[in-house]
Specification:
Organism: Aureimonas jatrophae
CATH superfamily of the largest domain: Periplasmic binding protein-like II
Number of helices: 11
CATH architecture of the largest domain: 3-Layer(aba) Sandwich
Keywords: DNA-binding, Transcription, Transcription regulation
Number of domains: 3
Order of helices and strands: HHHEEHEHHEHEEEEHEHEEHEH
GO molecular function: DNA binding; DNA-binding transcription factor activity
Helix content: 40-55%
Strand order of the largest sheet: 4-3-5-12-6
Strand content: 15-25%
Largest sheet: 5 strands, mixed
CATH class of the largest domain: Alpha Beta
Protein name: DNA-binding transcriptional regulator, LysR family
Distance between the termini: 43 Å
Radius of gyration: 23 Å
Family: Belongs to the LysR transcriptional regulatory family.
Length: 295
C-alpha cells in the first residue's frame, strides 16, 4: 500500500483555521484566497479518505477524523519547523540577552526558551525580568539585546510594534462595585508607579466619576495576583497568565468603566542585529502571535 504524503502547507492552514476559529481568517493570515484554502482542505480530505469538517450552525466543526488529524498535524508541523530551524541555524553560538515584563516571564517564557534551545543549543540566553521602564533603559544602553515593553511612550530608537492587546479589570468572581450611598472608593491592586496599567486604570475611574484608592501596591505580579485572589481589590491587566481563581470582570455587570487596549512593542538594542538575536526575536514574535490568537 502506497501512503500519500500529507501536504505541509495544507496542514498548516488546517491547524491555523481552527486556532483562529475561521478558515477565512486563516486565508488572510497565510495570504491566500478563501477558495485556495478550501481547495487545500479538500486535498487533505482526499489524502486521508475521510471528511475532516462538518457544518455546525453557521460555522464548521471537526469530525472525529478531523480531531485526530489536528493532533497529528500539530506534531508534524512542530517537527518540520524544528528540523528546518535546526539545519539553518545549527552553527549559531554566543550569547543573547532578553528582557521581559513579568506577565510574559510567568506565562510564555518556557515555550520561548524551549523552542530556542532545541534549534540553538550552543547559544546561552540571559533573561532579565523587570518593570518596563527598566527594561527599555537597559536595552537602550546596550545591556540587553531585546526586550518586550508595554505602553505607547517608549523612548528607544529601534522598535517593532507587535499588537494592541485588550485590557480588563481582574478580580474574584464574586467582586462587586459598592453601590451604597456611601460610594466607597474602588480598591485597586497595582504596581508601583510608573506602570503602563496603573495610570490608565486610574484615568478610567476618574473619567467615570468613581472614587478609588490604592489598596495594595506591589513590585511583583505574583503579589498583585495574591492580593486580588484574597479579595483585597481589583487590578487592571491583560488576560495573559490569568491565574485560576481570578476572572476578567464584566464592566456592564460590575459598573466599572471600559478600559483601553495597551500596546506591546519589541525593543531592540541595534538596528542591524546579530543573527542570534534575530533568531530569538523571531521565536518571541511567533510565540506571542500564536498565544494572542488563542486568548
Amino acid at each position: 500500500m502506497i501512503r500519500p504524503n500529507l501536504d505541509i502547507d495544507a496542514l498548516r492552514t488546517f491547524v491555523l483555521g481552527f486556532e483562529l476559529g475561521s478558515f477565512a481568517r486563516a486565508a488572510d493570515r497565510v495570504g491566500r484566497s478563501q477558495s485556495a484554502v478550501s481547495a487545500q482542505l479538500r486535498k487533505l480530505e482526499e489524502q486521508v479518505g475521510q471528511p475532516l469538517v462538518t457544518r455546525a450552525g453557521r460555522g464548521l466543526a471537526l469530525t472525529d477524523a478531523g480531531e485526530r488529524l489536528l493532533s497529528y498535524a500539530r506534531r508534524i508541523l512542530d517537527l518540520n519547523d524544528e528540523a528546518v530551524d535546526s539545519l539553518r541555524r545549527s552553527e549559531l553560538a554566543g550569547r543573547v540577552r532578553l528582557g521581559l515584563p513579568q506577565d510574559f516571564a510567568e506565562a510564555w517564557l518556557p515555550e520561548v526558551l524551549g523552542r530556542f534551545a532545541r534549534v540553538n543549543p550552543n547559544v546561552m540566553v540571559e533573561i532579565v525580568v523587570e518593570k518596563v521602564h527598566a527594561l527599555v533603559g537597559k536595552t537602550r544602553q546596550g545591556d540587553l539585546d531585546l526586550s518586550l515593553a508595554w505602553g505607547p511612550s517608549i523612548d528607544a530608537p529601534h522598535l517593532t510594534p507587535i499588537a494592541h492587546i485588550p485590557t480588563v479589570w481582574i478580580g474574584r468572581k464574586d467582586w462587586r462595585l459598592d453601590r451604597t450611598g456611601r460610594r466607597e472608593p474602588v480598591p485597586l491592586v497595582a504596581f508601583e508607579s510608573p506602570c503602563s496599567f496603573r495610570d490608565p486604570a486610574i484615568g478610567a475611574l476618574d473619567q467615570a466619576g468613581l472614587p478609588w484608592r490604592i489598596a495594595v501596591s506591589s513590585p511583583s505580579l505574583s503579589g498583585l495576583w495574591a492580593a486580588a485572589s484574597a479579595g483585597l481589590g481589583i487590578t487592571m491587566r491583560t488576560r495573559i497568565g490569568l491565574p485560576a481563581g481570578l476572572v476578567a470582570l464584566d464592566p456592564a455587570a460590575t459598573g466599572l468603566p471600559a478600559l483601553p487596549a495597551v500596546s506591546l512593542t519589541l525593543v531592540r538594542a541595534e538596528s542591524e542585529q546579530d543573527p542570534t538575536v534575530g533568531v530569538l526575536a523571531d521565536i518571541v514574535l511567533s510565540v506571542i502571535g500564536e498565544r494572542l490568537d488563542a486568548l
